[in-house]
Design a protein that fits this description.
This protein is mainly α. About 75% of the residues lie in helices and about 0% in strands. Helix 6 runs antiparallel to helix 7, helix 9 runs antiparallel to helix 10 and helix 9 runs parallel beside helix 11. The radius of gyration is 35 Å and the shape is elongated.
């Protein structure tokens, strides 16, 4: 990249100097040079053989300026976009794989968001059978999309993008991993409850969801949606090398993220298994008498 920029700058400087010396030199000298006979300018070969050998004195004063301007104009694109050309071809052998992995990563994030919104809008006290089935399907898809995020994220960190050496020394990368761990561990509460209710439904022992449990599950969904909005923000700073440092051993940061994920996973699964739902609040019709 630096070499391309240097050559482009050198070429531009030469073109500018050529034009500068041509304009600034004495008129008499330019007249003498212009008196030299040169072939007609025909880069496309549009003239016949006889015309191509003609000499044009009247166009000589313009040929020097034209050549200098053409050289200057030709060098500007190379000078203006060397980084783009280098970036476009730097990872050419892995371009297709990187693009597909990146697409899968973003698609999985959209899928997780959709599943979370489906659960958030469906969960309520005294859900009917169809709603119970809907949140069960949404949670299964949520798990599949989550696995795809983890797999494509691993490939992007290790095989594609900037490489693991860069990410391992980027504290924001491990912060993002920790946030993803909190995000995943939090979801274990709802997943455990949904599995329990699906089993109870198959055995015919399903009880209506109460107000207490529905509020807790909705709060979990809200927390996950907030995390989904925060994680990409950290990722954008991470990708640009903000707070990059090699002074902190990456093993320490990775260990802290792993401990956080394991601890929160245990907490939320234990809470779900021991959770006791409150009584179902009966829904009253407008014309019914108040319940004593």
């Amino acid at each position: 990249m630096t070499k391309i920029a240097f050559v482009s700058l050198l070429y531009t400087s030469s073109s500018v100097n050529c034009f500068h010396h041509y304009v600034k030199r004495p008129v008499a000298h330019r007249t003498a040079v212009n008196a030299i006979e040169r072939p007609a300018f025909d880069p496309l070969g549009l003239c016949d053989a006889e015309d191509s050998t003609r000499f044009r004195r009247e166009d000589a004063p313009r040929d020097g300026r034209r050549a200098a301007l053409i050289g200057l104009a030709a060098s500007l694109p190379a000078l203006a976009t060397p980084e783009l050309a280098s970036a476009a071809t730097a990872n050419a052998p892995n371009a297709i794989g990187s693009a597909l992995v990146g697409y899968g990563h973003y698609l999985a994030m959209i899928g997780v968001t959709g599943c979370l919104f489906a659960e958030r809008l469906t969960i309520k006290p005294n859900m009917d059978s169809e709603s119970e089935d809907l949140i069960a399907v949404a949670d299964i898809l949520y798990g599949l999309f989550g696995a795809l995020i983890a797999y494509t994220g691993y490939l992007r960190a290790v095989q594609y993008e900037k490489g693991f050496y860069f990410y391992s020394h980027e504290p924001l990368f491990w912060l993002k991993i920790a946030m993803v761990g909190v995000f995943g561990a939090t979801s274990f509460f709802n997943t455990t409850i949904i599995i329990q209710r699906s089993i109870a439904k198959r055995t015919g022992k399903l009880e209506p969801m109460g107000e207490k449990l529905s509020k807790r599950m909705i709060s979990i969904c809200n927390a996950e949606l907030t995390a989904l909005a925060s994680i990409p923000l950290v990722a954008t700073f991470m990708a640009r090398g903000v707070s990059y440092s090699e002074s902190i051993p990456w093993q320490v940061e990775a260990g802290a993220a792993a401990i956080l994920f394991a601890g929160l996973s245990f907490k939320y699964i234990k809470e779900a298994l021991a959770f006791e739902d409150g009584p179902l609040v009966p829904v009253q019709d407008a014309d019914s008498e108040p319940i004593p």
